[in-house]
Amino acid sequence: MREVNFKWMAWLAVAGLAAGTELHAQEADGANAVLPWAYVLNDPAGDAPAPDPDEIVTVPGSSVSMPRSAINIDNPPPDWHPDGHPPMPDVVARGGGEGVVACGYCHLPNGQGKPENAGLAGQPYEYIVQQMTDWRNGLRRSGEPLMGPPSFMERIGLAATDAEARTAAEYFASIDFRPWIRVVETDDVPATRFAGWIHEVVEGGGREPIGTRIVETPEDPARTRLRDDASGVIAYVPRGAVARGRAIVATGGDNSVACAVCHGEDLRGLGPVPALAGRSPSYMARQLYDLQTGVRDGAWSDLMDAAVRNLTVEDIVNIVAYTASLEP
């Protein structure tokens, strides 16, 4: 507990949180200093022994088995539930040209994604293609270069061809995004550590105040480590955040504009504009911050300028708590 409590106190000191503190005031300290719960940087590895790479592993509801060593980003993604998605094209199942790893490894074969990356299933084809074009043109970057998955995606985006991007976009856009995030309003949360670029609950670590943040953690850590695309996520959010977020999304509140104008009344997307409902709040928070600070500056980013310009940390927490709570 000593390490966990120290991390919590350090987080309070760095983030200020001073829940109303505007993001711009802390920009020079980097994205992790402002939103450490969203831009996760791994804690030092502990002393626990490494799992046996030759162990044969399985997940519930699947007849597939494989050695643990097969679950590696240099290999095809583990496809535990092949009936849960269409046949994967080569770029999703095996990767593309030099520097382009299999899309399905990080985003999962069914496109549901994880807190450290995007859920692509059901997003508009045009939107996915445009984002890949923005990566390739250097117009989209991560607000925290030290966070592995977004920076890795930046390198993939620079390397992927237009044809590879279109093939992947067609695949993921064809899959329905399903309920994946269980939102829980609370005053305190299980103590967590940062591993695998996400929050992992510390066994026996007790609980700590949630403050002005969201703690997104696997429903079943063992299944998530095995990249099971049928095992979802819990998002702990501050008590009352969903209602506060609903008010901001509906009217714009004091610092934003109504979201439904572009994203649709149900926030399930409109034309080439992406869906927000039911998506990872950690991922959504990173996008709002990246748009506000200008590191995400692609073809359609200007449409978000008025929406993000004056958002506070508390606003972002409330907005993404609400959007994550919605039925996809």
Summarize model confidence as the mean pLDDT: 91
Count of the separate structural domains: 2
The CATH homologous superfamily of the largest domain is called Cytochrome c-like domain
CATH class placement of the largest domain: Mainly Alpha
Fraction of residues in H or I helices: 25-40%
Radius of gyration using CA atoms only: 19 Å
DSSP, total strands: 9
How are the strands of the largest sheet arranged? 3-9-8
> What distance lies between the first and last C-alpha atoms, to the nearest angstrom?
37 Å
Describe this structure in words.
The protein has 328 residues and is of the alpha+beta class. The protein has 2 domains: 2-46 and 178-325, Cytochrome Bc1 Complex, Chain D, domain 2 (Orthogonal Bundle), CATH 1.10.760.10; 60-173, Cytochrome Bc1 Complex, Chain D, domain 2 (Orthogonal Bundle). Helix content is 34%, strand content 10%. The chain is built from 13 helices and 9 strands. It has helices at 2-15, 31-34, 90-93, 103-107, 125-136, 148-159, 162-173, 221-225, 241-251, 260-263, 281-293, 305-308, 313-325; strands spanning 56-57, 66-67, 181-186, 188-190, 192-195, 198-201, 207-209, 215-218, 233-238. A 3-stranded mixed beta sheet has the order 3-9-8. The chain has a two-stranded antiparallel ribbon with strand order 1-2. A two-stranded antiparallel sheet has the order 4-7. α5 (125-136) crosses α6 (148-159), α5 packs antiparallel against α7 (162-173) and α9 packs across α13. The radius of gyration is 19 Å and the shape is globular. The chain starts with a helix and ends with a helix. Mean pLDDT is 91; it is low at 1-28.
